[in-house]
Amino acid sequence: MEPPDEADCCNSGCNPCILDVYEAQLRKYQKLGREKSGAVNALNPTSYTVFVLTGRKKINESVFFYTFKYADCRERQPNCLDYKPGQYFLLRGRDPQGEFTRAYTPIPVPQNASLEFTVLVRLYDTGRMSQLFKTMQVGGETSWRGPYGEFAPDYAHKFLVFIAQGTGIAPLYALIRDIVVHNEECESFVKLFFCVRNCDDILLRDELYELGSFWNFNYEVFCNNCDQNVAKYHETIHNKKMSFCDLENYVQGKLGQVQVMISGSETFGREIKEIIDRLGIESSHVYVF
Ligand SMILES: Cc1cc2nc3c(=O)[nH]c(=O)nc-3n(C[C@H](O)[C@H](O)[C@H](O)COP(=O)(O)OP(=O)(O)OC[C@H]3O[C@@H](n4cnc5c(N)ncnc54)[C@H](O)[C@@H]3O)c2cc1C
Fold it and tell me: GO: which molecular function terms (predicted)?
């Protein structure tokens, strides 16, 4: 494993910093004592890899799918793009203020070609990386490193509860899909509470609907400002903000058998965690992305 150059650290407080990642990886590798045979991953947590933008698709006024394909020239060509559902990658940006990174979570898209990945991105008017996304051209080069984040749901829990806000759905969708589509051994019930601003913001709507056909998954949407009077697919859509009572109704009688995964803005994570604490769910059974 090649050590990163000191200059690879952009000194902008990235989490995780490339130098810390290298140390952690080195310790892991030394402990393992051998390199995984055969597989050459297109991504690396300790150095940047070039991917070109191959497609951009509008979902609503501010959210887009962006698809990237491996385009680096290395001696050892990669043969896989290896990451676990729910993990994230860091994209490097450069602007007049300097270098910086932002995290994005790849979502499973069956149509993706080999060594290709797709992220669901919300663009903010004043966001630094958002400005770069807005001007990205198909064929344009970008630099990514990863994957990061180690979380796997514990199937010992009978009820896996996912609570998402906005693009926070990305890691949760990746995990839910993996559980219900690929993991036949999982006998847990999977519930998603999805909190959105309006109906246009029900991201990955077709994908969630499709997952709804699996016996162990269903979802409810909480929409602050429901502007469509019918649910597109007879989904359960509540025209209100999710409250303590909504979660209480679901977890009643299930305490001790529930694991909760929360993903959204920092404020959302804090608010929902407070509700979960009040419900009496043990902190070790709660994971905030
Ligand atoms: C582990 C992890 C995974 C992530 N995965 C994704 C993902 O899959 N898709 C995705 O779109 N984002 C994801 N994010 C968020 C992403 O990393 C950036 O923070 C986001 O794209 C904004 O970056 P920016 O540089 O455009 O905005 P910044 O320059 O960081 O922010 C500038 C301004 O934009 C606005 N803004 C930025 N973030 C928010 C917010 N969350 N809510 C409201 N206003 C905001 C605010 O006005 C803020 O002052 C993830 C973050 C983490 C930590």
Answer: cytochrome-b5 reductase activity, acting on NADH; oxidoreductase activity
Q: Is 122 in the pocket of ligand 1 (CB under 6 A)?
A: yes
Q: Give strand pairing partners of 217.
A: 190
Distances (CA, A) of 29 to 80, 163, 212: 19, 34, 40
* C-alpha to C-alpha distance for 239 and 169, rounded to whole angstroms: 19
Determine whether the shortest distance from the Cβ of 120 to ligand 1 is under 6 A: yes
Please indicate whether residue 127, judged by its CB atom, sits closer than 6 Å to ligand 1: yes
Q: Could you report the per-residue pLDDT of 193-245, keeping only the tens digit for each?
A: 999 998 889 999 999 999 999 999 999 999 988 766 556 677 889 999 999 99
Domain boundaries along the sequence of the chain = 6-147, 159-288
CATH class (in words) of the domain with range 6-147: mainly beta
Does the annotation flag 102 for ligand binding?
A: yes
Compute the 3-state secondary structure of the chain and give helix, strand, coil in percent, each to the nearest 5.
25, 30, 45
* CATH number of the 159-288 domain: 3.40.50.80
Q: For residues 72 and 259, give the distance between their C-alpha atoms in angstroms, rounded to a whole number.
A: 40
Distance (angstroms) between ligand 1 centre and the Cα of 114 equals 27
